[in-house]
Design goal:
Chain lengths: 317, 388
């Protein structure tokens, strides 16, 4: 019962938000942006937790997903739900060219992925006949109305994103609990040892990279159809690599729900509180908050809850 | 006793009513400006011009008081969209837009979706008026800049022009338009598009020097690009006779920030510096601007002043007619027809100002005389003349 408390609390909050703030476009807009970051943070944490790889280049998957979906829906006339899926697949495909980087580990892998992200940004700029180049790409469809639900409205986008984040969290959970998850966790402890017992470490890491890229591309695609605007600087912005890392560390990157809650909380804190207190340079407050969180709870917000829950029976005794 | 208290109360109430000035109706509007990020230099100037316009308008009459809330969009499109949503949630009657077509585009789309009038003086892309947005208005456009540069080239008659252009939407559009029109006018034109991410312009300047051998370098870009291009030219010293640019170049701020790079550089503007304003509104603007910020008015702040005055007057007219809360502002904006320090302001069916035209100013020892067209010139052009 207690184990599912954080998930239940998040579910209640997710349902309550549109009831309380449904009429407030600004708050709903912030929630939508926060959930986009949450989806990417979840994908980043999956790669780090299960694949044992730290990425500084998730902006590549985000941008490729966004451009693939926008271009296919605008120029090939693909319905938006299918183009979203194509965006996610496009990001997964682009991760294939990163497979050689799996031979690297630690900071070398992180920097190699960062370089790939920059290469994709240059491609988006130079392939101007397809992407619109630096001038950007504006005329593509918004999220559609399906079964009477207008997904392009703030509340509709919010509902779609909540469902997508929840589905991705369930996939993450399923992988983590499977035999593959066990092998991956063992690999994180000692890759050589797992190889000795017959685990194909490279193949498993490749699958995690593909899955992480797929999820990131999906959220990149959804963001493109929500903002309805793309340019290489925005789609491949370093923010899409950095914000999810901050969110995952803040919320607790070892947990599944930590990155999700972390993303929404830090985004709301930055835009509602920090920007109000310090209209120019508010990112400083975000940095201070993160530093404070690392000092107080090195395992993040959800890590702190878990520690307290484990400590509670001892305290009671 | 009761009668005495009643009399005293009546007397007090009457004297208070006489003494108190009529309370002005407060109208809240919102603005998003790039106060930080890559476009901050222009964003600050826009913000200052807007603040002066609010003060001038509020002091010019007592019926309405305009109050503006400004949000820093950090030179990012997504932050500008969020800013518009916040301003709308806070009850802003209209939105004053920021700077840069790539930012104004999505922000004004959001404003249009929310049914809010959006006005800008910082976005010139033709795409913005081709979207069919009913609530979008702007006071400047690409055509005005193009006319100013074409006029200068016809006066100077260079044997070749190298256009160094950012591939961002607005600069690319201006560069393409100029390439076509100047070629039609018989000039030899070579276009050098560049990625906005690049900071080293020496390879492009080398092409201008060794291949083009043009007499004029025209820069269609933004402030940081101008600095990089001129710096590279100063190192490689191509045999050109003048360096010319588009928006946000012929400004006192550019000279004070980069005095070693700006001497003799020519850019689009409509005001000389020190300012010589002939119309009453311009004089008032210059005086209040000096009082508030201790400096002379300039190009970007004047654009912001005019757009804010246009919007404020339309808001007041709609409030007077009692239609402000029922969508009357849109109709009042469309009725706009007024002179301004930029010339006549009217809006056509797509919200564009067809009267916008610019002169060319040249940096000369901290001053910026207008040097083209001849009809509005306040000084003689220095040509050939370079920053080095």
């Amino acid at each position: 019962m207690m184990r599912n408390l954080p998930a239940a609390a998040l579910l209640v909050a997710a349902l309550a938000i549109p009831l309380v703030f449904g009429g407030n476009g600004y708050i709903m807009g912030l929630m939508v942006s926060g959930l986009i970051v949450a989806g990417v943070a979840l994908a980043w944490a999956l790669l780090g937790n299960l694949g044992g790889m730290v990425s500084f280049g998730h902006a590549a998957f985000f941008g490729v997903g966004a451009y693939t979906s926008a271009i296919l829906s605008a120029k090939a006339g693909l319905p938006v739900p299918l183009s979203l899926l194509a965006g996610a697949l496009g990001a997964a495909l682009c991760s294939l060219v990163m497979l050689p980087a799996l031979r690297l580990s630690g900071p070398y892998f992180a920097l190699a992925i960062l370089a790939y992200a920059h290469i994709f940004k240059i491609l988006a700029t130079e392939l101007s006949s397809i992407t619109g180049g630096s001038a950007g790409f504006q005329r593509f469809p918004t999220l559609p109305t399906i079964a009477g639900i207008d997904f392009s409205s703030r509340t509709g986008s919010y509902a779609l994103l909540v469902v997508m984040v929840a589905l991705c969290a369930l996939v993450y959970r399923a992988v983590k609990r499977s035999h593959v998850g066990t092998a991956l966790r063992a690999m994180a402890e000692s890759e050589d040892a797992t190889r000795v017992v017959g685990v194909n470490a490279t193949l498993l890491k490749s699958w995690m990279l593909l899955l992480s890229a797929f999820i990131t591309g999906l959220f990149g695609a959804m963001n493109a159809h929500i903002i309805n605007f793309l340019e290489p600087d925005y789609a491949f912005s370093g923010n899409w690599s950095v914000l999810p890392i901050i969110a995952a560390i803040f919320g607790g990157y070892r947990t599944i729900l930590g990155p999700v809650a972390g993303a929404v909380l830090i985004y709301l804190f930055d835009q509602i509180i920090a920007k109000e207190l310090l209209p120019v340079g508010h990112q400083i407050l975000l940095g201070l908050l993160l530093a404070g969180m690392i000092l107080v709870a090195p395992n993040g917000l959800f890590g702190l809850f878990q520690t307290r829950r484990k400590g509670a029976p001892h305290a009671a005794a | 006793m009761i009668r005495r208290t009643f009399l005293l109360s009546t007397l007090l109430a009457t004297s208070l009513a006489v003494a108190a000035p009529a309370l002005a109706e407060e109208i809240a509007i919102g603005a998003h400006m790039p106060l930080t990020g890559s476009l901050a230099r222009s964003g600050q100037a826009f913000n200052e011009g807007m603040q002066v316009a609010i003060k001038v308008f509020n002091e010019s009459q007592s019926k309405h008081k305009i109050k503006v809330t400004v949000i820093d969009d950090e030179s990012q499109p997504a932050k500008a969209v969020t800013a518009v949503e916040k301003l709308n949630s806070d009850g802003a009657a209209a939105i004053i837009g920021g700077y840069g077509s790539n930012i104004v585009g999505p922000a004004s789309d959001t404003s249009n979706r929310l049914g809010k009038v959006y006005i800008t003086g910082g976005a010139v892309s033709d795409e913005l008026v081709a979207r069919g947005n009913t609530h979008f208005f702007r006071i400047n456009n690409n055509a005005g800049y193009q006319r100013g540069v074409e006029g200068l080239m016809q006066e100077l008659k260079p044997n070749g022009i190298s256009i160094v252009a950012s591939t961002r939407e607005a600069p690319a559009l201006l560069a393409k338009g100029l390439e076509e029109s100047l070629t039609k006018l018989g000039f030899k034109v070579t276009l050098h598009p560049f990625d906005p991410a690049i900071t080293d312009f020496k390879p492009i300047i080398n092409k201008v020097k060794l291949q083009d051998k043009s007499e004029i370098i025209f820069m269609s870009a933004y402030e940081n690009d101008y600095v990089g291009i001129i710096r590279a030219a100063k190192v490689l010293k191509p045999q050109v006779k003048a360096i010319v640019g588009a928006w946000s170049l012929a400004t006192p701020k550019m000279y004070s920030d980069f005095p070693d790079l700006m001497q003799n550089v020519i850019g689009t503007t409509f005001l000389p510096f020190p300012v010589e304003v002939k119309d009453e509104e311009g004089k008032k603007f210059a005086a209040v601007y000096k009082e508030m910020f201790g400096k002379e008015i300039e190009y970007a702040s004047t654009l912001a002043f005019v757009e804010t005055m246009v919007l404020s007057e339309a808001l007041a007219r709609a409030a007077d007619a009692g239609t402000l809360k029922s969508g009357g502002l849109l109709a009042e904006m469309k009725k706009t027809d007024r002179p301004s320090p930029l010339g006549r302001i009217t809006f056509n069916a797509v919200g564009d100002n067809p009267n916008f035209a610019l002169s060319m100013g040249q940096h000369r020892d901290g001053k910026i005389p207008l040097v083209s067209p001849a009809a509005s010139a306040t000084g003689k052009i220095a040509y050939p003349a370079l920053p080095w």
